[in-house]
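anyone seen this seq b4? input:
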Amino acid sequence: MAEKPKTPADRLGIAHIYSSFNNTMVHITVLTRSDTKSRRAGGQHVKADRLQGTPYAAMQAAAAAAKTAKEKGMTSLHSLVRAPGGHGARSPGPGVQAGIRMLARHGFRIGRIEDVTPVPHDGTRRPGGRRGRRV
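predicted toks r here
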């Protein structure tokens, strides 16, 4: 069966990059966010659990996601960067910059880079109790 012709909207995608200090996930979708083109995590590319959140693991995950998205016809990406947020860290982990750089190195035109970390509007209480976490 013949494949439908690619429109400019099919070649533009969104790279959702979630980066904590424990792992980095790269998820590439079409512009409407309805169809996943590629999804990779840093833990799929390194052997030790402690290495999942490193820039090297993010580079490997982004390279694998970029390869499959390229095969499916994507040419340019917007990037949505997310940190854990909530009552966790609001700054993304060390894998964000390496992931975006690897996507650009694979030939994608990077459009907009936006931070979509969830910020609580006076949400729940932080864990640890009144006197904090006792180590």
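DSSP finds three helices and five strands in the chain. Helices lie at 8-11, 55-71, 95-105. kinda curious what u guys think
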